[in-house]
Write a structure and sequence with these properties.
2 copies of one chain form a homodimer. Chain A is of the alpha/beta class and about 325 residues long. Chain A has 13 helices and 12 strands. Chain A starts with 6 loop residues before the first helix and ends in a 14-residue tail after the last strand. In chain A, about 50% of the residues are buried. The interface between A and B is large, with 47 and 47 residues. Chain A binds a DNA duplex (16 and 16 nucleotides) through helix 2 and helix 4.
Chain lengths: ~325, ~325
DNA sequence: ATGAAAGCGCTAACAT
DNA sequence: ATGTTAGCGCTTTCAT
């Protein structure tokens, strides 16, 4: 089996020069129709496939943006990615997708690979990078962080909802239903989890309620374990730090033989589609929209690298479903 | 802002030739320690980042495999991907990940892009490509299809479970519990869905039961709608074509006020982790293992392109959980 | 409308 | 141990 045909092979077969073949394949109007046809036919017959590496090298651009996803197993990130890809494609960029599986060192390696591939920009759909690493990357290439605010770093934009506010909304919602013993299952020790926790605490204080926080994580098992602890503490309502963990909490409630919402109410956070089927209330963010905004910010910054660092906030709201209801024994209207 | 430093800049700063700098950065032992240090220091000071496009071009290889995922929203595929990436990394390949969002034409475009980027192999974690397209791709580059069998196409390997057999196991399981009115909610009109349906029909026949099939799809909404129809037909047990649809079916059961498994039993297919939390019985496939096998097959074929087309089958088994139990009114042991 | 020539950033013989 | 040289496949002036 012979090696792949190159542009030269196409040109030769069509009886023209490399340069003309290149022009023709790019659809240039200054190629005579007869040559154009000959070139296209030759390319087709040879099964010619342009070599992007060669083209990128000489063009000095790749028309590609790199996307890092924290965790492919969380459907939330897939929903954000939809928005990124849709908009990137519209703007003429293809995307290179990597994941670090929530491990900082793998993340670093993967993103470094993206940079070596000369992506023109970076979208980080959550990450665990150190500030130093993040700033280093942002210095090299336009970067936007999705899911939290990163103000003031040159070359870096961000999009997110207001997690503190969202958590307060969750508390408001449960308090309005008459719940007092609202326990928060945290998402562990990371930036977003801390903000959601802070919002929870503010919300409880605003309602004159005693906050009660138990450790969890952004995974099903974290939600499961946290929920058990919360139940032992006498919770009538659970506010779980994210939707995945809320699914774990649901399992804990089931295993304890508790009904939702009659015995215990449950609220998650993120707004992933799956929770609709499970009829679980959640603090929803416009996920695909966040992705679109991220891609817009990025392509704008690529076009205008000096632009000052911007942050875009998206709206967050409670989507009330069957899992949240009045506390047991409360008067029904 | 100046342009990115090149190897030439590094060499100049270290006072050596490009070639030596190249050797040093590749960790060659034939570089004097003193020059090595100077070169590494220069690279570091300049923030040098090797240009993969240039390197791939001259090396005539990219050490990259392309991975196509049918649908990022189905966690099943993410679990397969884990296995692919783990093994690919071990074997010295990085991965380029794309998705066509289950749209054949987007798929074609994305995979074409992969080929233009000169990936050395292709893993298709499910796809909707025509046979012609698939064979065209496989002719150009070693390819392995995950989730179904594609025998006899040169250059093409495959890994899957036995979907017919798996579906029979599901029927066996439900029949053993005493169910007779076992209704199958299909996964639509595609290869896998057809095999699972065929297995269901064989299983029902083997137990002397009347098969009853309703249309669905591989999505939550398909499962929801299909389940409603099935319930109208008097189902006491639902065998749903995949796990995502089974979650939809769960919602239908809840909306109808039916208890699981007391009123209706439910079995899904795929073995995604989430179903453990939901306590739903499923026909499980070893997903990460499938990914590992795929990566192994691919790297083997890259090393040995002439090897004949092979198919690897993985074990499929029923993971019984709370959603499947004796039919209503049946004697309890 | 077409071709010749230069060169993108890098690697790999081949010299020395 | 180090440098010189020749490309990899392509795009893009610049001539003609």
């Amino acid at each position: 089996m012979s090696r792949r045909p190159t542009l030269y092979d196409v040109a030769e077969r069509a009886g023209v020069s490399k340069s003309l073949a290149s022009l023709a394949l790019q659809g240039s109007p200054k190629v005579a129709p007869s040559s154009r046809d000959a070139i296209l036919a030759a390319a087709d017959e040879l099964g010619y496939r342009p070599n992007r590496t060669a083209s990128s090298l000489v063009r000095q651009r790749t028309s590609t943006i790199g996307v890092h996803i924290l965790d492919l197993h969380n459907p939330v990130f897939a929903e954000i990615l939809d928005g990124v890809q849709e908009r990137a494609r519209q703007r003429g960029y293809s995307t290179l997708l990597v994941t670090g599986n929530a491990d900082p060192s793998t993340e670093r390696t993967e993103i470094t690979g993206l940079l070596e591939s000369r992506v023109e920009g970076l979208v980080l759909i959550a990450h665990r990078l150190s500030d130093a690493d993040l700033e280093e990357f942002a210095r090299e290439v336009p970067t936007v962080v999705v899911t939290w605010r990163t103000d003031g770093v040159p070359g870096l934009d961000s999009v997110s909802g207001d997690d503190e506010h969202g958590a307060r909304l969750a508390v408001d919602h449960l308090a309005a239903l008459g719940h007092e013993r609202i326990v928060h299952v945290t998402g562990g020790d990371n930036r977003i989890a801390r903000e959601r926790r802070a919002g929870y605490e503010q919300g409880m204080a605003a309602h004159g309620l005693e906050p009660y926080v138990v450790d969890g994580s952004f995974t099903e098992s974290g939600g499961y374990a946290g929920a058990l602890t919360a139940l032992d503490a006498g919770a009538t309502a659970l506010f779980v730090a994210n939707d995945l963990a809320a699914i774990g909490a649901l399992a804990a409630l089931r295993d304890r033989g508790l009904r939702v919402p009659e015995d215990v109410a449950l609220v998650g956070y993120d707004g992933m589609r799956l929770l609709e089927s499970l009829d679980v209330t959640t603090v929803a963010q416009p996920l695909a929209e966040m992705g679109r905004v991220a891609a817009d910010l990025l392509t704008d910054r690529i076009a205008q690298p000096g632009r000052e660092s911007t942050y875009r906030r998206v709206e967050t709201r409670v989507v009330a479903r069957g899992s949240s209801g009045p506390r047991r024994g409360a008067a029904r209207r």
